[in-house]
Design goal:
The complex is a heterodimer. By secondary structure, chain A is mainly α. Chain A has one domain: MetI-like fold (Orthogonal Bundle), CATH 1.10.3720.10. Chain A is built from nine helices and no strands. The two termini of chain A are 39 Å apart. Chain B has a single domain, classed as P-loop containing nucleotide triphosphate hydrolases (Rossmann fold), CATH 3.40.50.300. In chain B, helix 3 packs antiparallel against helix 4 and helix 5 packs parallel to helix 6. Chain B is globular. The chains are: A mainly alpha, B alpha/beta. Chains A and B meet through helix 5 and helix 6 of A and strand 5 of B.
Chain lengths: 226, 219
């Protein structure tokens, strides 16, 4: 109970560092989830809907990448963007944008795979029905997207969940720099390493509260869509 | 007018739909009858342009935009029954009358995904009728309806075709249902035409399969 009390005290009277940590966490998660959804959902729908040569190989690759360990994603981005790497001249290391890039690498395959499954499951029935009603190609696609919308909300939420809870990639490329790249998960890790379990747990409670707050409007939206 | 010549389409590892010649005049109501796997759905999907035949010619005088096709498991879209029906409308059809005729008035505000199998099928049929098509291709449109509802909907479908002059090609595995609607009967067995003709086809089948299949039913 003490931990909960401390979490709420921290939330009600946040210090400057906590404000920065929450701000950075939300900024990073918002951008990495949004970019992953913008890239992944159309690709996923295409992969689920169309039948073409190499589709099953592509699906297998995507499914494999869905399980990509965060540290490996972080390492790949680290190698690409470090000073001597191919994109080193961009000087993005240890910044929020590089953390977003690492998370996009991690989340996009999940979004593609789940979108393909959502669209694939329904697309044959929806498209055959819509085609039978002589709807135009554009209308068929818009109906398919409309029918899959509740699943897309769930997929975006899963992406957000994966982003906000991720620690391996962001600590590797972000460096957990105070007042710059520290996010909730890396802060929890740091507090645990320091032995300050009270603050670490309080931060964990805040992280879960943020997740809950993000879920409420998404759930309401899903219900409205039905 | 629909004219089929030397149509061939392999639809399973064992069977090939093989129709040497078939013609359907405008305004006719043709029932495709046969057991599961006889090729009924394949023929309908070919006529609808969903599948391409491997061989043969198909001529349909009705433009594609005026040909409505309903697959065996049609999808009901998100939203209410009325919203689904409006999706199918292409002109200024009387939606209230259609809801009434298809026994959907009481369900019009119900979520379509919460309908029972029979209700869902009534909605899909109503949605097709709302499209005001000149050629209707319906795959087992009444399979989930109970006997009484099936009879009422068969009559509705028949009346609709008579009033609008629409041509109907529908599949069913129930000859009794076919009898209530159709003017012609095409009995398929393992992709081959066993019988094709008018009411006499059901009362006096010539093929061995036709005799065996129809003897199960009290027609």
């Amino acid at each position: 109970m003490d931990y909960l009390k401390e979490a709420f005290t921290l939330l009600l009277h946040p210090d400057a560092e906590l404000m920065q940590i929450i701000g950075t966490t939300l900024t990073m998660s918002f951008f990495s989830t949004s970019i992953s959804c913008i890239l992944g959902m159309p690709l996923g729908v295409l992969l689920g809907k169309r039948r073409f040569i190499g589709r099953s190989l592509l699906l297998r690759i995507v499914n494999t990448l869905m399980g990509l360990p965060p540290v490996v994603a972080g390492l790949i981005v680290f190698m690409l963007f470090r000073g001597v790497g191919p994109f080193g001249s961009l000087h993005l290391m240890f910044s929020v944008p590089i953390m977003v890039i690492a998370q996009v690498l991690l989340i996009t395959p999940v979004v593609i795979g789940l979108s393909a499954a959502a669209a694939g499951e329904k697309s044959a029935m929806i498209l055959e029905t819509a085609r039978g009603m002589r709807f135009s190609g554009g209308r068929q696609t818009s109906l398919l997207l409309r029918e899959c919308a509740p699943q897309f909300v769930t997929i975006a939420l899963m992406g957000f969940g994966r982003s906000i809870a991720e620690v391996g990639a962001v600590s590797l490329v972000g460096g957990n720099i105070q007042y710059k790249t520290r996010v909730m998960t890396t802060a929890i890790l740091l507090e645990s390493n320091k032995g300050d379990f009270r603050r670490a747990l309080a931060l964990g409670v805040i992280l879960m509260l943020i997740s809950l707050i993000a879920n409420i409007p998404a759930y309401t939206l899903q219900e409205k869509m039905k | 007018m629909i004219r089929i010549e030397n149509l061939k389409k392999r639809y399973s590892s064992d069977f090939t739909l093989d129709i040497p010649a078939l013609s359907i005049a405008p305004g006719e109501r043709v029932a495709l009858i046969g057991p599961n796997g006889s090729g009924k759905s394949t023929l309908l999907r070919i006529l609808a342009g969903v599948l391409k035949p491997e061989e043969g010619k198909i001529g349909i005088s009705v433009p594609e935009k005026d040909t409505g096709y309903q697959p065996q498991n049609p999808y009901v879209f998100r939203g209410t029954v009325e919203k689904n029906l409006r999706l199918g409308m292409r002109g200024d059809e009387d939606i209230a009358a259609l809801l009434e005729e298809c026994e959907l008035t009481a369900l019009k505000d119900k979520r379509a995904d919460r309908l029972s199998g029979g209700e869902r099928q009534r909605l899909c049929l109503a949605r097709m009728l709302a499209g005001n098509y000149k050629l209707l291709l319906l795959d087992e449109p009444l399979s989930a309806a109970d006997i009484e509802t099936g009879e009422r909907l068969s009559l509705l479908l028949k009346r609709y075709c008579e009033n609008t002059g629409a041509t109907l090609v529908m599949s069913t595995h129930l000859p009794v249902q076919a009898q209530q609607i159709a003017t012609k009967y095409l009995i398929l067995y393992k992709g081959q035409v066993a019988e094709y003709g008018d009411a006499a086809t059901l009362s006096a089948p010539e093929s061995e399969f036709g005799k065996r299949f129809l003897s199960q039913w009290k027609l």
